[in-house]
Amino acid sequence: MRNFLVFGVAVFVAALLCELMVRWVSPQDLSGTWRVETAEGLRLNRSEGSAMHVQGGLGVKYQFEAPHLRRLQSDGSPSTGAIRVLVLGDSFSFGWLVEVEESFVGRWQALADQAFGAGCICFLNAASGGWGTADQLAYLDEFGADVVPHVVLSVLNRYDVDRSLRSRLYDVAGDIPVRTRGDRRSVAKRLVNALPGYQWALEHSHLVQFMRRAAVHRGDAVQSEPVPGDFEPSDHDAELRAAGERVGRMYYDALLELAREFGAEFFVLSTGWPYAAEATSGFQEGTVAWFGDRGVPYVDLTGPVQDSVAEDLDAFTIENDSHPTPEGHRVIAQNGWPFLFGELAGVVASFGDERCRLATAEDLLSRRTAEVD
């Protein structure tokens, strides 16, 4: 027993010394973890609790609610509303390293409350870092019945179709996406994530964070070999653009069909952020007419957004990162709101809930052109 106690004290002292050494030599950004995965391999947000995200001197606390949504209410209250708008997108839509009120989805929620009354429209943000169009479809397939959305809003960003070309969530060799079992994290990783106190340790211990980052980098190196569907750097851009057009249209046809199965309206908004990748650019060529033929409301913000940010993109981008700052989110929110307002006004008019107010024509005009804070 005495030897066991001596061993325990020795381990504690060694860990404490290592903690102090890491804090002094290589201090870490103390970020928690908020990513989980489904049995079918879809990686997405957790469904409860909170997590700190610290990077380069910035720190944001994310809050979550079921099913796998970033909570938009900073006071912790549940998301409720007469009309549920499910937002699908990547880390831009998630609000990477920005407070929820400063994200463009959070700003749209505030504008919707002003325009239609609090409690009328509720944005449910399922967007998750690293997602492509394939992940959007998988989420809607797995959790659409839990959300029962009235509107599905797909936010198209600059890497979405390129990521989907490499995704193992679906087989896209045929005419429609066929669900497969995506790559799952190792059993060891899932067990570690489930350990009691692991989240707390990540957000408080530099040593634990250092060990986690070392393991993550090692895993990335092991899994760096090409996967089926990858396009090598020697491939021509034209091939990527053609593949992007085919696969992107396939995924969006499937998203539209699934949204309609839930009885939901389906809208698509492109952020227009600079430097879209080749496959995504290929898909976006001709999308106005293509979505129009399918009766899908669509807006591409490339013109107004790039007019606002292109001359000094660094001023709208987080330092040493590729994500927009709160000001970048304001640009997307402001340019996207007129489109969303017009489409949501039609939904509100047909819905007829007492929590939604219908404005006069003059009010509608002023709200449509409202500045975003």
What does this molecule look like?
It is built from 14 helices and twelve strands. It has helices at residues 2-25, 91-94, 104-116, 133-147, 160-166, 187-193, 198-204, 206-222, 237-261, 278-284, 287-293, 302-309, 326-351, 361-368; strands spanning 35-37, 43-45, 50-55, 58-65, 69-70, 83-88, 121-125, 151-156, 170-171, 178-179, 265-270, 298-300. The strands form four sheets. Strands 7-6-8-11-12 form a five-stranded parallel β-sheet, with helices on both faces. Strands 3-4-5 form a three-stranded antiparallel β-sheet, with no helix packed on it. Helix 7 packs across helix 8 (206-222). It starts with a helix and ends in a 5-residue tail after the last helix.
What keyword list fits this structure?
single chain, alpha/beta, five-stranded parallel β-sheet, three-stranded antiparallel β-sheet, 14 helices
Concise structural overview:
With 373 residues, the chain is α/β, with parallel strands linked by helices.
Question: Helices, strands, pairings?
Answer:
Layout: H1 2-25, E1 35-37, E2 43-45, E3 50-55, E4 58-65, E5 69-70, E6 83-88, H2 91-94, H3 104-116, E7 121-125, H4 133-147, E8 151-156, H5 160-166, E9 170-171, E10 178-179, H6 187-193, H7 198-204, H8 206-222, H9 237-261, E11 265-270, H10 278-284, H11 287-293, E12 298-300, H12 302-309, H13 326-351, H14 361-368
Helix pairs in contact: 1-8, 3-13, 4-9, 5-9, 5-10, 7-8, 9-10, 12-13
